[in-house]
Design a protein that fits this description.
Blueprint (H helix, E strand, L loop, with lengths): L3 H4 L8 H8 L4 E2 L1 E7 L2 E7 L3 E4 L4 E7 L4 H8 L1 E6 L5 H6 L17 E3 L5 E3 L4 E13 L2 E13 L4 E6 L2 E6 H11 L5 E2 L4
Antiparallel strand pairs: 1-11, 2-3, 2-6, 4-5, 5-10, 6-9, 7-8, 9-10, 11-12, 12-13
Bound molecules: flavin mononucleotide.
Length: 194
């Protein structure tokens, strides 16, 4: 259907600050992206991982091109997606760069193995997904990276880590299932309430 609206030039009016405030309402699962080989490794905490397609298994992640992980991802063309458990906030903080840790120092205090791609994979997360880069779309400050899943490991843990309203939030399938049954809506247990 053709309408006059389609022909009207729409100028973006949302400021970055307003957009950032709106996006704080979106709950994101917390992952650590890992890149590199052997001692030449780094990684970053992200909430932008999403499934792209189930068959073939592919995912996307949005990565800041100023981050220290970006050159390693381009060089080695592979990465790990490590989905964190509710009690891995310390790992999320190590990999968000706020504590000043860089490169390989972010990996201490947890157990890692090398995936078939060569990228480090976390032992003891909810899942560790080994990917090779399929395609990269660079836009503005970031790049959307499409990853083809090579291999993955899952744990039996039922408690995941989300980020919402600027805070880490634990979501436990067993504990929150009770409230879920009561109200038919997912609920989260905020870490600052524990
Ligand atoms: C909860 C959370 C989610 C984040 N999500 C993303 C993301 O999706 N993409 C991104 O580029 N940076 C994201 N960041 C920021 C990166 O973790 C941070 O900029 C990066 O680790 C800094 O890396 P560098 O010190 O290696 O440059 C997120 C940070 C936090 C705390």
């Amino acid at each position: 259907m053709t309408t006059a609206v389609q022909d009207t030039a729409i100028e973006p009016s949302a400021s970055p600050a307003k957009f950032r405030a709106a996006m704080r309402h979106l709950t994101g699962g917390v992952c650590v992206i890992t890149v590199g080989r052997e001692l030449d490794i780094s990684g970053m905490t992200v909430t932008s991982v999403a499934s792209l397609a189930i068959d073939p298994p592919t995912l996307i992640v949005s990565i800041n091109r100023q981050s220290s992980s970006w050159p390693l991802l381009q060089r080695y063309r592979s990465f790990g997606v490590n989905i964190l458990t509710a009690d891995q906030v310390d790992i999320a903080e190590r990999f968000s760069g706020g504590n000043g840790l860089q490169g390989i120092d972010r990996f201490s205090g947890a157990e890692w193995v090398s995936g078939v791609s060569g990228a480090p994979l976390l032992v003891g997360g909810l899942a560790a997904i080994d990917c090779k880069v399929d395609e990269i779309v660079e836009r503005h400050s970031h790049a959307v990276v499409i990853g083809r899943v090579l291999n993955l490991q899952q744990s039996a843990c039922k408690a995941g880590l989300a980020y919402w309203q600027g805070r880490y939030v634990a979501i436990d399938r067993d504990e929150d299932a009770v409230r879920l049954a009561e109200v038919s809506l997912p609920t989260a247990r905020a870490l600052w309430e524990i």
